[in-house]
Amino acid sequence: MTQSREAFEARLRQIGVERYHDKHPFHHLLHSGGCTPDQVRAWVINRFYYQASIPMKDAAFMSRVTDPALRRAWRSRIEDHDGTDQNEGGIMRWLRLADAVGLDRDYVASTDGVMAATKFAVDAYVRFVRDKTLLEAVAASLTELFAPKIHAARIEGLLQHYDFADDSSLSYFRNRLSEAPKDVAFGLDWVLTHADTQEKQDAAAAALTFKTDVLWAQLDALHAAYVTPGAIPPGAWQPGTHLVPARAKAS
């Protein structure tokens, strides 16, 4: 039986309550100040692969959209990450975070040290958006419903517990506090409008669940490799390598 618009939105939001990666042990460790400098660096390196893949995911989505209005609404997502003449973009802001934690930004940008598990998870998301229905692709983006809360907690926790944290190094998260609600308002309305049968509602809910699994799997791999002693997989970044002196904070 097809759910009402209100009931279906509640169903989607419940997926975040139960499955969003703000509940992962690695995030609790990170936000509470429990991560070592190298564990923070490993997170920055591996998360960069996800950040750099988002505009490619969105470009793959747009290449299949025949409705100019939908393309116009969606293209700001690419600009938010890749940047414009007036906006440096999320990818560049993430590289400033890499600078702040003492990493060689060229090494981070190369993605050479990213774990295979991270690549498998992120690449699966890009393929999902490229190959599934437009409804499923948009629904998968709705993890943004839950993102502002985790960004706010991250800003608070990093500022409290880590010397590298300041307005410059955390600018990615501050910008997402205003960018994500804009994106999700459109995406949520689009999904609620177009998921007009039980089959479509089930597919959209499954797509959002898949995306939460993608985010959770990345942290599972990170926690297993860098929190568990001696578990870093071959080819992944090794602590103590590809570092540069951390920049001095402005007085």
Descriptive tags:
251 residues, mainly alpha, Heme Oxygenase, Chain A, globular
Uncertain runs with pLDDT below 50, 5 residues or more? none
Query: How many beta strands in the DSSP annotation?
Result: 0
The CATH architecture can be named as Up-down Bundle
Mean residue pLDDT? 94
What is the radius of gyration? 18 Å
Helix content: 55-70%
Overall geometry: globular
Structural class: mainly alpha
Distance N terminus to C terminus?
A: 61 Å
Catalytic activity: 6-(2-amino-2-carboxyethyl)-7,8-dioxo-1,2,3,4,7,8-hexahydroquinoline-2,4-dicarboxylate + 3 O2 = pyrroloquinoline quinone + 2 H2O2 + 2 H2O + H(+)
GO molecular function: pyrroloquinoline-quinone synthase activity
GO biological process, one term: pyrroloquinoline quinone biosynthetic process
Pathway: Cofactor biosynthesis; pyrroloquinoline quinone biosynthesis
In brief, what are we looking at here?
By secondary structure, the protein is an all-alpha fold. It has helices spanning 5-19, 25-31, 37-62, 68-82, 90-100, 105-110, 116-131, 134-140, 147-161, 171-194, 198-226.
